[in-house]
């Protein structure tokens, strides 16, 4: 603990964002380049090195947060990088994309603003790359055993890197034309520029991981054939089966799923397209769904120069502070949060009729109506109570030329045939069933990430990838593994 009074004398200070008028004109990350490093040592000094660090419990990766906070406060970046990478394969991803449940569990957060754990994490990760602290770590020897990982999101990549470093020969199969899953085609570049992903993939290639793109298991390669080729198979395809909105007018042209819309914007940034076929330019946009995916659509539509953008959230407007009776510390509370996209929408007044920023809270979609050509032109909604019952006299109509459905995901996509061809059992939620060793009902086949857990956070996906790697390594090594397993398949976030 470098400064015993740091949490008393130093206020919380976060990585500043670029001016809104500037950042909405490009797809670069929203933060001021280089502005984090001058403040981060002082922020790390706010860590109290408390006797029982609940940030450990709040983070499924078990990140050694007080240790690397102390090392950063002393400017020992190499040691800080070592401690950070000891538990997290991809801290440059989580430091940008994770909603930081560790900060909700920070002991200081009982009565003060939490330590800026997420900012410290990304500062260490970026400094590590700049200083060359993250060289490839190929295995000293190969085991002769082979593993196929299906899916290249954070769970699949974490599993692949761990298993490669353990000496197994690993091939990652991805049905898209580039590796990364939702990190590539789903997360907008203004949240995480793809150079961070490309850099990490370069490290993995140098370590020996093989990547096979544009290959859908079940279509391009039969699932049984893949199983016969490898000693073990890890399914990490994510939960990409999106939820539908069954209301009148859903068939109208111009109503799309968020994950039909967002990948096209990413492809524009990759240089594949000059303009997205679903561009929001010049359109009135309504986003149905109040989560992070909806916020990603919001930021994207603003950058595409939509005439207006409104986001509907069926939940009521959250309070500014946590309710200690229903969501006590150290659980992750549902409070009002202002993402970069919402900040932009509020400043630019993209939705003048919204309750806050661009959001209408406690709003439920009743139906869509369109023009004579069958194109959507309006969304009809009603306010609801806490039980989602319509409130009389609260009906409202919003202009809508483009409607984006961001209602979450129910489980893995079965269209390719992977699950059905192998005969993998699913539970009542539509996710893959597995035992305490992450194994499915099919011998030699394992499941990790959202495909088995259900829609979750990036830190849980990486933790699942690390844990399933340990389980596979135990089997291939006949009961012995040195790989860490931070979570079990049935672990869940802390709840009241």
From TrEMBL:
Keywords: Amino-acid biosynthesis, Glutamate biosynthesis, Oxidoreductase
Biological pathway: Amino-acid biosynthesis
Keyword Nucleotide-binding: no
InterPro entries the UniProt entry points to: 4Fe4S_Fe-S-bd (IPR017896), DPD_II (IPR028261), FAD/NAD-bd_sf (IPR036188), FAD/NAD-binding_dom (IPR023753), Glut_synth_ssu1 (IPR006005), Glutamate_Synthase (IPR051394), Helical_ferredxn (IPR009051)
Domain of life where this protein originates: Bacteria
Domain 4Fe-4S ferredoxin-type: 38-69
This protein's record includes keyword Hydrolase: no
Name of protein: Glutamate synthase subunit beta
Organism: Streptomyces chiangmaiensis
């Amino acid at each position: 603990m470098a400064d015993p009074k740091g949490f008393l004398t130093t206020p919380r200070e976060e990585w500043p964002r670029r001016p809104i008028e500037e950042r909405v004109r490009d797809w670069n990350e929203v933060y001021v380049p280089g502005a984090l490093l001058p403040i981060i040592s002082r922020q790390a000094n706010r860590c109290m090195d408390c006797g029982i660090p609940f940030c450990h419990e709040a983070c499924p990766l078990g990140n050694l947060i007080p240790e690397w906070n102390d090392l950063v406060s002393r400017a020992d970046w190499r040691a800080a990088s070592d401690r950070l990478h000891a538990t997290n394969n991809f801290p440059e991803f989580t430091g940008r994309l994770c909603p930081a449940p560790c900060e909700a569990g920070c002991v200081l957060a009982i009565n003060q603003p939490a330590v800026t754990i997420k900012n410290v994490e990304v500062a260490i990760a970026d400094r590590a790359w700049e200083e060359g602290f993250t060289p490839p770590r190929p295995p000293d020897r190969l085991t002769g055993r082979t593993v196929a990982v299906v899916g290249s999101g954070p769970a699949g990549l974490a599993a692949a890197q761990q298993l490669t470093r353990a000496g197994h020969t690993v091939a990652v199969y991805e049905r898209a034309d580039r590796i990364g899953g939702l990190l590539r085609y789903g997360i907008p570049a203004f949240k995480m520029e793809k150079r961070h992903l490309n850099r990490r993939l370069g490290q993995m290639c140098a370590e020996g991981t093989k990547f096979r793109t544009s290959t859908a298991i079940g279509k391009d390669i039969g699932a049984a054939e893949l199983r016969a080729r490898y000693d073990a198979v890890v399914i990490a395809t994510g939960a990409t089966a999106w939820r539908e909105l069954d209301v009148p007018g859903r068939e109208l042209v111009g109503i799309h799923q968020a994950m039909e819309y967002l990948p096209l914007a990413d492809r524009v940034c990759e240089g594949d397209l000059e303009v997205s076929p679903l561009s929001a330019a010049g359109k009135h946009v309504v986003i149905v769904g109040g989560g992070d995916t909806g916020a990603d659509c919001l930021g994207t539509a603003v950058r595409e120069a939509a005439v207006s953008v409104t986001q509907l959230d069926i939940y009521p407007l959250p309070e500014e502070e946590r309710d200690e009776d229903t969501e006590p510390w150290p659980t992750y509370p549902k409070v009002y949060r202002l993402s970069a996209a919402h900040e932009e929408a509020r400043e630019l007044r993209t939705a003048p009729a919204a309750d806050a920023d661009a959001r209408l809270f406690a709003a439920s979609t009743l139906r869509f109506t369109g023009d004579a050509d069958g194109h959507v032109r309006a969304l009809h909604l009603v306010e609801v109570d806490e039980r989602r019952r319509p409130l009389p006299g609260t009906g409202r109509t919003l202009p809508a030329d483009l409607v984006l459905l961001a209602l979450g995901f129910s489980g893995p996509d079965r269209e390719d045939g992977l699950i059905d061809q192998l005969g993998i059992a699913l539970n009542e939620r539509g996710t893959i069933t597995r035992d305490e060793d992450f194994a499915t009902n099919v011998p030699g086949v394992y499941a990790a990430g959202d495909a088995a857990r259900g829609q979750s956070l990036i830190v849980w996906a990486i933790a699942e990838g690390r844990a399933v790697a340990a389980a596979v390594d135990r089997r291939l090594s006949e009961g012995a593994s040195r790989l860490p397993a931070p979570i079990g398949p049935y672990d869940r976030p802390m709840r009241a």
